[in-house]
Design a protein that fits this description.
Elements lengths: L25 E10 L6 E10 L2 E9 L8 E3 L6 E20 L5 E20 L4 E6 L4 E14 L2 E10 L3 E11 L1
Parallel strand pairs: 4-7
Antiparallel strand pairs: 1-2, 1-10, 2-3, 3-5, 5-6, 6-7, 6-8, 8-9, 9-10
Length: about 180
């Protein structure tokens, strides 16, 4: 009898699972425009953001117009008459979060501060022309917004809406680049 050699046991290494692709970071820079349905008022600004799976953004938009006023209508002044000409100025600053749903779809929600100031051309009792603040049509305060960013390659398009002081709503559209 010959001694038998011990049999070698073959241990099979577990197969490596394919690595999950990590989402790439996105940096977003956009030009932004806001439109107020009903009044036709426009405002312009920009958006900057970053996201991987979750991220954030900041938005600033303004009408970049203002009027110097010496009077306010709505406070009981009797010597101010309006001729019907109205101007407005608007400002919005919001920041919030972006969520990556897919490489092309990023919903966002944010909050911040907004204002809308209305001015009427006033004809004074002494016949001097001036502008008066229309306090009944001006408001400022808490602003909220919601929307979505679509990515197509390096191009980005956003569509959303925001509301200031629960009284004034804008629809906004942005176009820019992502990298």
């Amino acid at each position: 009898l010959q001694p038998t050699a011990p049999r070698a046991t073959v241990v099979k290494e577990p197969e490596a699972k394919p690595a999950m692709a990590q989402p790439q970071s996105m940096i977003l820079v956009m030009a932004d425009a806001g439109y107020a349905p009903g009044s036709g008022e426009l405002s312009y600004g920009g958006v900057a953001g970053w996201a991987k799976e979750f991220g954030g953004y900041v938005r600033y938009r303004s009408s970049f117009s203002g009027v110097a006023t010496q009077y306010s209508v709505g406070g009981g002044q009797s010597d101010v008459w309006l001729d019907g000409t109205v101007r407005t100025s608007r400002t919005l600053f919001c920041a919030g979060g972006l969520i990556r749903v897919s490489n092309a779809f990023y919903p966002y929600v944010g909050a911040g501060y907004g204002s809308r100031n209305a001015y009427g051309r006033a004809i004074m009792a002494n016949c001097a022309e001036n502008w008066a603040s229309l306090s009944a049509f001006s408001y400022s305060g808490f602003a909220i917004e919601v929307g979505v960013v679509f990515r197509l390659g390096k191009a980005a398009l956003s569509l959303g809406a925001n509301c200031t002081a629960l009284r004034y709503t804008d629809v906004d559209l942005g176009i820019g680049i992502s990298f």
